[in-house]
Amino acid sequence: xxxxxxxxxxxxxxxxxxxxxxxxxxxxxxxxxxxxxxxxxxxxxxxxxxxxxxxxxxxxxxxxxxxxxxxxxxxxxxxxxxxxxxxxxxxxxxxxxxxxxxxxxxxxxxxxxxxxxxxxxxxxxxxxxxxxxxxxxxxxxxxxxxxxxxxxxxxxxxxxxxxxxxxxxxxxxxxxxxxxxxxxxxxxxxxxxxxxxxxxxxxxxxxxxxxxxxxxxxxxxxxxxxxxxxxxxxxxxxxxxxxxxxxxxxxxxxxxxxxxxxxxxxxxxxxxxxxxxxxxxxxxxxxxxxxxxxxxxxxxxxxxxxxxxxxxxxxxxxxxxxxxxxxxxxxxxxxxxxxx
Length: 340
Ligand SMILES: [Zn+2]
Prior knowledge:
Blueprint: H1 3-27, E1 44-45, E2 51-54, E3 72-76, E4 81-84, H2 90-103, E5 108-112, H3 118-121, H4 124-130, E6 135-139, H5 143-146, H6 155-167, E7 183-185, E8 188-193, E9 196-202, E10 212-216, E11 221-225, H7 243-254, E12 262-265, H8 274-297, H9 302-308, H10 320-339
Parallel strand pairs: 4-5, 5-6, 6-7, 11-12
Antiparallel strand pairs: 1-2, 2-3, 3-4, 8-9, 9-10, 10-11
The structure holds zinc ion (ZN).
């Protein structure tokens, strides 16, 4: 055969097999009691440490990402497993339990909830039903979201659940329910397990009223929840967001001694440059505040202020389109009364 034709045939067969591989990757469905999921669900490990995590996709929860938009992780000790956050559907929570079981058969003892927002908590149901119902720990302000009993819960929590039953069906359906915390705390919640010190600290209200981080001192690992964002625009546009307290919390984290060496944020990739991750969130919030202040000083409308602001530093970041304008408007409204 002609070399040319042979090469052509060879490349066609390569393309063909790639096509088959990509089809089989896409089609690989994993059954769970809460619907089948196809997300590859890669488990990452903090190098050399018994700490593992999953990284969600950027974007809003929907069928394309199967609701996997947030991160979650776990720490394995000799006495048991401590989980931080539980992902955005019971099916993903179930997949997470499967991943934990690939690493260890130790009991799953505690689940720390960084904050009660839908993308981080619907997986709790799977832990309750399929992982021995571990103790769920959250800050007491979480009760505003999840409060009451299973039939009568906080209004915000119920409204969001209704929306997710539509956009995340079949993974979130009429059988999905919110799991309230078993234990709540006021300022911090500390415990030892398997020789490790776990420090759960309330840093909110920041992104949400109950924002709590988990620090594992001996390992230098920080689960920051949505207090720290890196590589994407933070979400500030909620009536629950408390910008000033958020900035205070970031300063607190910046002054931790010894400084953690590994951050697993609520969204986006994990980060070893802790100082720069902290700085990114802080600089973004301060940038928006200063831009809105400048407009208010000139008696400019929000529209003018927004249009006159140079967003070039941030406009190519993920979630810019979805969040930046709302963030700016939220801050403009918050600052407005202090100017007039
Ligand atoms: Zn989140």
